[in-house]
Structures are given as C-alpha cells and as structure tokens.
Amino acid sequence: MRVTAPLGRRRVVVSAADEVGAYRVLHVADPDGPVPWPGQFYMLAAAESWGGGHDERPFLPRALSFLRAAGGRLSFMLEDVGPGTRRLCELAAGDELWVTGPLGSGFESPDAGPLARRAILVGGGVGIPPLAAWADVLAAARELDGPAAGGELPDALLGFRDAQHAAAVRLLGGAKVRVATDDGSIGHHGLVTELLAAELDADDRATVYACGPPAMLEAVRAICDERAVGAQLALESVMACGFGACYGCVVAVRDGGYVRVCVDGPVLDAARLEAVPAH
C-alpha cells in the first residue's frame, strides 16, 4: 500500500528525543504531512550542520522507515553508525529537520476472516520500526473486528547483537515477542532466522513480514521459499533521491529486469526475488 507524499520537503521541528538502549528515537512534529502506511519511509536531513565540513560535499539525506505516526507526530529510531546518522542522533527538542515523504510502498494487508493466515514479524536491529508500525495496524484491526475475524496477535521474532540493543523490544507493542541475541545475553542464543525456521516447521500456515539487514532478509526469503510460505520483505538500501530518479537502489527480480527499492518497494514480495542482494 502507498500513501502519496506531497511535493517537496518540509522543515519540521524535533519535539522530543529518547534513548532506548543502543538506539535514539526522534519524535518530530509534522502536522501538515499525510499519515503514512507501515513500511513506507522518509528522507531525513538535519536543517543545520548537515555536511562534512568546509569545502566538503553535504551528506545525502538518510532514508529511514517511520516507527510510529499519530496526531501529527512522526517517530524514527536511529543508531549512530556513521557521520550522517550521528548528526541525526545529536538532534534534540527544538532542533529542525528536513523531511520528505512518506515514500515507497508498504506492507500489504493479510487476508481477513476466520481462514486468515497468522502474521509472523521478523526483524533485526534498526529493521524494527516498520514492524512496530505494522504490529500497531494489525492489533487495531484485531481489536476492531474481534479475534475471530482479525486472527491471532502476530508473533514477532526479533534479533539483536546483545541485551543493550534488545532494549528496542519495548517499542513494539501489539505482538507476542520472542528475542534472539548474537551473544546469548537475552533470549535465544543465535540467529533470529533459527526461531523463524522452527516456528514454520511447527505451523507453516502463516505470512511472514520482515525487515532487517540483507543477510537476515536473504535467510528469511530462503526459509520461506523452501516451505512455500508467503513473505513480504522491507529491503534496506542506500538511496540518493528516494524518487526513483537515480537508479542507485535497483535489485534484480526473478522474471528479468530490475525494480527500484525506493518506488517499487521498499516492501517487495519475496517470491519476486531470486536473492536479497548485499549492500
């Protein structure tokens, strides 16, 4: 599903910022923007000091999925992994931000009714935000229609490096959460895709929704492909424009040719992909 973005970028104000384990959550006042759909993203750039320094090229905007959107406020979860994300993480209440969006296509709603397949959300690290937004939508639909019509609460299988990163679990409501960590400091000691494989081996009547690093998404794609389980993957990609003009985020599809992650995705049906490419 796609909500169309207004033309141009908007200068908005950061209303608050929270530390959540290894991550920072920015809350942004965006009263004039449309309400996005889970899986869509925004291009973000700090209004001030956005660049490498004197006579150096400015940073490209950073593509980030939203965590939540309600009451004219957007929330984004970030991790400081380089100069661009570091500058965004430095923003505090009162600072200004350029936003463009919502962009791209989000998750597709599952079939309704008593025969609906259950939803399994699979995420890793900063891939949590679109899943949190999707869990909110699924939980709201279930509350509106009742368990018989809306199905069970979705299972959320979330993978992190360690307990500090796993603090982001509290950002995801409306789901039954299980955690895997690389170091075994919390939850399952191993890969989140190991939890997924076991879950589908026990009951494969499900649709999988996933977002995370490319290696994780490729494992999710392969696991679901082997079991003929439907999956929607929110791909990560470095983007220069967000509008499909630069063709810097293309991925190959099974029937030949390429699609652009920023306009044809970022959410793609896993069955369309031969593989999820590394960055």
Describe this entry's structure for a reader.
With 279 residues, the chain is α/β, with parallel strands linked by helices. The chain has two domains: 10-103, Elongation Factor Tu (Ef-tu), domain 3; 118-234, Rossmann fold (3-Layer(aba) Sandwich). Helices cover 22% and strands 31% of the residues. It is built from seven helices and 16 strands. Helix 5 packs parallel to helix 6. The longest helix is centred in the middle third of the chain and has 18 residues, at 128-145. The protein starts with 9 loop residues before the first strand and ends in a 10-residue tail after the last strand.
What portion of residues belong to β-strands? 25-35%
Number of H/I helices: 7
Structural class: alpha/beta
Task: Write down the CATH topology of the largest domain.
Answer: Rossmann fold
Order of helices and strands: EEEEEEHEEHHEHEEHEHEEEHE
Distance between the termini: 25 Å
Total E-strand runs: 16
Largest sheet: 7 strands, antiparallel
Provide the residue-averaged pLDDT. Answer: 90
Morphology: globular
Percent helix: 10-25%
What's the structural domain tally?
A: 2
Under CATH, the homologous superfamily of the largest domain reads Nucleotide-binding domain of ferredoxin-NADP reductase (FNR) module
Order the strands across the largest sheet as they lie in space: 4-3-7-1-2-6-5
CATH class of the largest domain: Alpha Beta
Quickly give the CATH architecture of the largest domain: 3-Layer(aba) Sandwich
Q: Which regions contain 5 or more consecutive residues with pLDDT less than 50?
A: none
Supply Rg.
18 Å
